[in-house]
Structures are given as structure tokens and as C-alpha cells.
Write a structure and sequence with these properties.
It is a single chain. By secondary structure, the chain is α+β, with helices and mostly antiparallel strands. The chain has two domains: about 10-60, no CATH class; about 70-215, no CATH class. Helices cover about 50% and strands about 15% of the residues. It has helices spanning about 10-20, 30-40, 50-60, 70-85, 95-110, 135-150, 180-195, 200-210; strands spanning about 115-120, 125-130, 155-160, 165-170. The chain has a four-stranded antiparallel sheet, with helices on one face. Helix 1 packs across helix 2 and helix 1 (about 10-20) crosses helix 3. The chain is elongated. Mean pLDDT is about 80; it is low at about 1-30.
Length: about 220
């Protein structure tokens, strides 16, 4: 008779954990990584505990939430998973708290600042202001982002500090491009803050403890 095929160690651990639960204890969800291992493992039908296996299989088949429930928490969670998956991560330099503080700044700038926007030739000028931490957040975040926009081929951007925040001016590089000028005015402060693809890289650099992260 052919020898029976065996579970992987990970699969056995999943089943063993299910069997070890006290009768009055509610079973916890099987981690999705363990589910994948259990599904891929060859089955030892002769020796398995079928009831435990079926319970674990049902647990793996249940849908699980994919939304973290809070945007900043989700952003931090994604970065942490990336750091953990990277064998070159230098944990002595990692500073997830720096990322959290930056995300707080993003919240203050996006949700708590006041924006006075006016048209100027070929673009817009905006006074972005607030009180308390909002003032500092505007000066840290909006001013640095304006510098990034100024490096693009489409925009000319500048920022100066004013009482309570910063004055930001953004115009089209091509002054004859009416469509681009209209886009700048339509995007306004919030829209222009999302321009560029450096945000995600900046977040990862902050969490890694990159000393140049704040200059990006």
C-alpha cells in the first residue's frame, strides 16, 4: 500500500490549535497565511481529524474585512507590512512614530485649514491658514509639497510664510495652455496637494528613518 502523504507542519499546527481550544472558548479566526498553507498541503485522509479539519476549512472560507477602519491606521499598517517583508530593513533606524506624526499633519492640513483662493495670471494664489498645530502643519507640509510641484514640468510653484500659515502661488509653466490653467484653478489647494507620486515613497522613507525623508 502506498505510504500516506502528510500535512505540512503549518497545516498540522492549524488543526492542532483548533483541537486545543477549550469547549467553552469561541474559536479564533485562522490566519489567512495558514489557510493558504492548509489548502496547498497534501491531505492525509487516513490519519486526519476530520471534524477539526472541516472546522478550520470553514473558518478559512469565511470572508474577512479588508478595510482597516481608519485611513491613517491603514497607511501605517501597509508600511509596517512592507518593512517586515524586507530583509534589508534596519530596525535600529525604523521610526514609525515619525510617519504617524506626518499623517496627523496631513489631517490638520486637509481637514482643519482655511483656504482663501484667488486667480492670478496663469494660475492661482492661496492663503492657507489655521490655528495651533494647523499653522505648523501647513508650514511643514504644504510648503515642502509646493517645492515638489515646482520641480515638475507643468507647474511653477512657490510658498512664503504668512501669519497663521503660508501663501502658495501655482501657475502653469506654459502660459498659453488654457486647459492647464483651468485645471490648476479647478484642483485648488486640496487637489494640488495630491499631485505627484512622491507621497507613498515619502511615507516609507519616514518610517525607515531616512534622514533625508523630510526633504522629499
Amino acid at each position: 500500500m502506498p505510504s500516506a502523504r502528510k500535512y505540512s507542519i503549518a497545516s498540522c499546527l492549524v488543526v492542532a490549535a483548533a483541537l486545543a481550544l477549550p469547549a467553552q472558548t469561541k474559536a479564533v479566526s485562522t490566519p489567512q497565511s495558514d489557510c493558504a498553507k492548509m489548502i496547498d498541503a497534501p491531505a492525509d485522509h487516513a490519519n486526519m481529524d476530520h471534524s477539526a479539519h472541516m472546522a478550520a476549512t470553514r473558518d478559512c472560507a469565511r470572508p474577512i474585512p479588508t478595510n482597516s477602519g481608519q485611513a491613517a491606521f491603514g497607511a501605517i499598517s501597509e508600511v509596517v507590512r512592507m518593512l517586515e517583508a524586507d530583509p534589508e530593513t534596519d530596525w535600529s533606524k525604523v521610526n514609525v512614530e515619525a510617519l504617524r506624526q506626518h499623517l496627523i499633519d496631513m489631517d490638520y492640513v486637509t481637514m482643519r485649514s482655511e483656504v482663501a483662493q484667488r486667480a492670478v495670471p496663469h494660475g492661482i494664489q492661496m492663503d492657507v491658514t489655521g490655528a495651533g498645530r494647523t499653522t505648523a502643519a501647513v508650514r511643514r507640509m504644504a510648503v515642502s509639497h509646493t517645492a515638489m510641484l515646482d520641480q515638475s514640468s507643468e507647474y511653477r510653484a512657490s510658498a512664503t510664510e504668512i501669519r497663521g500659515g503660508a501663501r502658495i502661488t501655482i501657475t502653469a509653466t506654459d502660459t498659453a495652455d488654457a486647459k492647464l490653467i483651468a485645471r490648476i484653478r479647478g484642483l485648488g489647494f486640496a487637489g494640488l496637494m495630491t499631485e505627484g507620486d512622491h507621497h507613498a515613497r515619502h511615507h516609507l522613507a519616514l518610517a525607515r528613518g531616512d534622514a533625508t525623508a523630510h526633504a522629499r
